[in-house]
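Ticket #4471: structure output looks truncated?

Reporter: J.K.
Steps to reproduce: submitted the chain below (101 residues) through the standard prediction queue, then opened the result file.
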Amino acid sequence: YGGNWKMKNHARYAPVGITNENNTSQVCVYCFKKIIHPKRTRIIQGVERSVDCNGSSICINKEFTSFKANRSVQSCDQQSAVAICISGLYTLLSGTTLPVF
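Returned output as attached by the reporter:
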């Protein structure tokens, strides 16, 4: 995907913003702290194992309001979509890219 051909091609019909998706699925969009994937216990070939639940994420910031209310589990897809929107909005409003957090 070298060059600007994709942006120029799409810009004929609508405004286009391209954003960097760096760390969007690894950082909480509300407090900018690291998130983890919750673990669940599964029986695999007769052995009980702890495996990651990759469809959701947990913010482990103990000062965060949703953590205190036991509501810190979020969908990874929603978390990433909000992070990409924040990054794109910052780029559109400021004219610079969002610093890596």
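Triage note (M.O.): checked the attachment and the full token line is present. The CA atoms of residues 35 and 82 lie 15 Å apart.
Status: closed, working as intended.
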